[in-house]
Amino acid sequence: MALGPTQRLKDGIVAVETMTRFALAVLALASGVYTYLGVRSILDGSPTGVFFAAIIYSVSVSVGIYAFWSYMARFYPHITSRTGKTAMLFVMACGAAMILAMSSWLNAAALAGSAAVEQHLSETIEGYSADLDRAHQNALAAQSLLPDIQRAAERFTQLAAVERQSGSLTGTTGSGSVVQLLSQMAGQMRSLEAGINGSREQVTELFEQGQKRLETMRSLVSAPGRIEPRADQFSTEAVALTGVISSLTQTSIAPSIRRAADDLSLGFIAPVADGTDANLINRQDQVMATVRASVAAQSKALAKAADNILGRAPVEERRFVPLSSAEAVLTYAQDFIPAWAGAISIDLLPGVMVFILAVAHASIRRQEEKLPYAERITAGELLRALEVQRALAAKGVDLEAAVADRKKDGSRDGEPDDTKPDAAKAEDTTGENAKGDDELTNITSLDARSRRDRQNEDR
């Protein structure tokens, strides 16, 4: 009854030995296959060269994984010393790290490489979309100045018309110097208005082109098929979109408005008063001075508004960096934890089987240590011990006296062994068939009665 659990553990270990080897082989083969797919995604060159290079690498990985875990399953469960276990655990940790470095990340690239590249393309689209919107907003910011410019142009136009018809400014009707000046200012404002309206059309056209590029890029990300040709076409669209964003940045009318605002005040040239009398000339000069002050105020307001627009942060040029599937898996590892977990599990699952075997063997050793020696020996060991016992009895060796003398000698530390009895010497002469003093002691206790019976028969 006491030997039942131990024997069942031993039988279980023997039963799963073939399954363990088969599982190791399958896991190593699976890791090699995914490693091959991962290597193919990062190698460049001729198709034949890439094929053979990937095959050689994946076969090396499969053989290395199978051999490493086979050694661990064979040796680690049978090591009992603390030092030996620590050393083997260190070796196992080093081997696991090497397997992760040479295989697991390539397995992850094969499992989630395409999805990782698509993730990279999607995030790139988001960045380009934000850049396009910012460039569009900066280009349209000058449109906010259009109502002010229109009001100023309308005001100068109306003043010129009123002065021409009723002479409300100078008191004299007709087209004189004041009317010419007011018409000139109105013309400059209309010119600015036309420039802003023309810029709006160009900005709208460029923005529509950018939107079409973004739509094409989004369709490439979500399209079925291999990711490599889609990524190449995506790169082409990204370069074209970068050009559109640069054109939008350069199309802004704000710098032109800033220069025009300076020209309004610095380049103001009032015509010479053309009145027929001194009083009219004086009134014309006063009106033109008022117009000059109004133009200066308008120029200052436009310059300030243009400076606010120009003070916005410019859109920095974005550069698209293509990534291979292996690089994308590493870059976006946090988004593909399940794929990484599966890739690592394929390589390190044999370690779980190694620890299962180690626990089973340790349990067997603990159970056997609690049993008497007679219950731990096998039938073959018992038969050999009985043969030794019979050989000694046939030569007339007193086994009880030999055992007693051996125990006495063992209790005295450092005592020379010159007084060893003849029985012990006889035991040494036949020691090649014995299993040691402990075994002899146990066998003697087991078969003492049968030995005495055979001695009585010899007499």
Task: Please tally the helical runs, counting DSSP H or I stretches of 4 or more residues.
Answer: 16
Termini separation comes to 40 Å
Percent of residues in helices comes to over 70%
Rg result? 50 Å
- The protein's oligomeric status is single chain
Shape: rod-shaped
Structural class: mainly alpha
- The ordered H/E elements are HHHHHHHHHHHHHHHH
Strand content: under 5%
Number of strands: 0
Mean pLDDT: 77
Low-confidence residue ranges: 413-459
Number of domains: 3
- For the report, how would you describe the main beta sheet? none
Give a structural overview.
The chain is an all-alpha fold and 459 residues long. It has 16 helices and no strands. The protein has helices spanning 4-42, 47-75, 82-140, 146-166, 177-222, 227-251, 254-266, 278-310, 325-331, 337-369, 373-376, 379-394, 399-411, 422-429, 437-446, 448-458. Helix 3 (82-140) runs parallel beside helix 6 and helix 13 crosses helix 15 (437-446). The longest helix has 59 residues, at 82-140. It is rod-shaped.
Short description:
With 459 residues, the chain is mainly alpha-helical. It has 16 helices and no strands.
Keywords:
80% helix, single chain, 459 residues, 3 domains, mainly alpha, rod-shaped, disordered C terminus
Secondary structure elements and pairings:
Blueprint: H1 4-42, H2 47-75, H3 82-140, H4 146-166, H5 177-222, H6 227-251, H7 254-266, H8 278-310, H9 325-331, H10 337-369, H11 373-376, H12 379-394, H13 399-411, H14 422-429, H15 437-446, H16 448-458
